[in-house]
Amino acid sequence: QVQLVESGGDLVQPGGSLRLSCAASVSISSLYLMGWYRQAPGKQRDMVAHIISGGTTNYADSVKGRFTISKDNAKNTVYLQMNNLKPEDSAVYYCGASGIYWGQGTQVTVSS
To answer: Which one of 50, 68, 81, 99 has the fewest CB atoms closer than 10 angstroms to its CB?
Structure first.
């Protein structure tokens, strides 16, 4: 069983930055794919960013150039650096591992 715990969500003004963290209960080097996903009220959960074990990353078009996914294998933690945040980025952000394991989510609200 893999447990994922997200943190770092907050209320931030448009143009601001946040860094989300996802701490895993197992070695993330053993997990092929880890990602961040988000779900706004009344909408489906969408992929934000993926990182695979070799380090290759993939981003949703809406966040390219603003968000960066990274990982620290020694800390078993995956990060999502979010810059130039927009109101439409407001959502609950979830960490996922291989599309099977999920965290509880962390709320990001972008508002003035």
So the answer is: 99
Note the pLDDT tens digit of each residue in 42-80: 999 999 999 998 889 999 999 999 999 999 999 999 999
CA dihedral 60, 37, 65, 68 (to 10 degrees): -140
CA distance 73 to 57: 15
- Alpha carbon of 86 to those of 1, 14, 23, 107: distances in Å? 35, 5, 25, 14
Condensed to tens digits (0 to 9), the pLDDT of residues 7-27 reads 999 999 999 999 999 999 999
The three-class DSSP label of residue 80 is strand
Please give the sequence-ordered ranges of beta strands (E in DSSP) within 1-112, or none if there are none: 4-7, 11-12, 18-24, 33-39, 46-52, 57-59, 67-72, 77-82, 91-97, 101-102, 106-110
